[in-house]
Amino acid sequence: MNEKDLNASKRMQLPRDILVGPDAIKDVGKVCKELKLDGCALVVTGKITKQIAGERVVKTLSEENYEADAIIVSSASTSELEHVKQRAGEIRATFLVGVGGGKSIDVAKLASTQLGIPFLSVPTAASHDGIASSRASLTHNAQTVSVQAQTPLGIIADTKIIASAPYRLLASGCGDIISNYTAVKDWQLANKLHDTKYSEYAAALSQMTAKIIVDASNSIKPGLEASVRIVVKALISSGVAMSIAGSSRPASGSEHKFSHTLDRIAPKPALHGEQCGVGTIMMMYLHKGDWQSMRDSLKNIGAPTNSEELGIDDAYIIEALVHAHEIRPARYTILGTGLTREMAEKLARTTGVIT
Questions:
Q1: Which of 71-75, 92-96, 125-129 has the lowest mean pLDDT?
Q2: Kindly report the CA angle at 174 between 164 and 146, in degrees rounded to 5?
Q3: Which residues are registered as beta bridge partners of 44?
Q4: Are 280 and 182 a contacting pair, CB within 8 Å?
Q5: How far apart are CA 237 and CA 206, in angstroms?
Q6: Cα torsion at 43, 46, 49, 51 (round to 10°)?
Q7: Pairing, β 67-72 against β 40-45
Q8: How far is residue 154's CA from residue 172's CA, in Å, rounded to a whole number?
């Protein structure tokens, strides 16, 4: 750490109240009371997740004498973002509650940030670390961009609801967490070569989170609340690591660049965490690390480890590897200035991602 860093102030925004367990959704209203929230809540949810959890959240808020209304979003787009902000203004909402998967939570997170009011995260699936992080993914002009937002004031994760969601979503969350390994290696490389600001605490927390999932990979199974607890806690820890770092560096490196490129070019991309998991296998090879252990852990969990399991043609895998470095070019990773087509194909074949 240089003298400039020692004299600089650093702000960390962390969740204040986290509740994880069966039937935790019944206590959303109580959590809001404990957080000293008052006024009117707008629950941002999806069409299906409203039935699963959104209506129950409105009920528990009403039981604690909150005025509460719900709004359904169909995508994490700028138009839906503006729609939510408009509705929040109409009912004079004093806080937002995102209930559902990625799109509901991302829209609620970003809308609350722009409105300057608190936000609570109530995930119905554990497919990525966005349930706890200060980043939101938004689609704009047919491109998905990651936008800085605020950290949830509270997180309420009902393990019974999440365990009943399709197992593929939980396995995807594991892939997103395991990718912390290569994200931290990329961060360390950038620090060494380009003096990128680095936090040992955030990096250690991020690596420990990934290790917990790798060590537990044989015991993470469908329908088990115990598995959900492990993964949800890891996703929250990953989000906290990003808050400590003040950036997504502890959990987003070259493997995320690969995933974001697939989102742009593949006709039918896989889930974010699934693509990051496969990217981690290849990026760990480039780092000369134990890529076989990454692959084996993903296999144990039941997450994809190759193009066929992702449902993406080999040609798009190679194309994504060639262009991945163009995503956030200022963020230096092991991809450097890019791979040639020959290097990309050799990498994908050597690691068994394509055959």
A1: 125-129
A2: 100
A3: 71, 98
A4: yes
A5: 7
A6: 80
A7: parallel
A8: 23
Kindly state the greatest CA–CA separation across the chain.
63
Which residues, other chains included, contact 230 with Cβ-Cβ below 8 Å and sequence gap of 6+? 212, 213, 216, 219, 220
CA dist 282 and 350 (Å) reads 9
310: closest CA among 349, 278, 264? 278
**Cα 19 from chain centroid (whole Å):** 18
CA distance 320 to 271: 15
Is the separation of the CB atoms in 233 and 20 below 8 Å?
yes
Q: Which of 272, 277, 290, 279 is nearest to 254 (CA)?
A: 279
The residue to which tokens 């961009």 are assigned = 145
How does DSSP classify residue 158?
E
In whole angstroms, what separates CA 147 from the centre of its chain? Answer: 12
Q: Are 254 and 291 in contact (CB under 8 A)?
A: no
pTM of the predicted structure, to 2 decimals: 0.91
Coil, helix or strand at residue 190: helix
Cα–Cα distance measured from residue 44 to residue 124, given in angstroms and rounded to the nearest whole number: 13
Tens of pLDDT, residues 106-152: 999 999 999 999 999 999 999 888 899 888 888 877 677 788 899 99
Separation between Cα atoms, residue 50 and residue 44, nearest integer Å:
9
- Cα separation of 220 and 163, whole Å? 11
Ranges of H-type helices in the chain: 3-7, 28-34, 47-49, 55-63, 78-90, 102-115, 159-164, 167-178, 180-194, 200-215, 225-245, 254-265, 272-286, 291-301, 307-310, 314-323, 341-350
Answer yes or no: is pLDDT of 266 > 70: yes
Q: Which residue is listed with tokens 């974010």?
A: 272
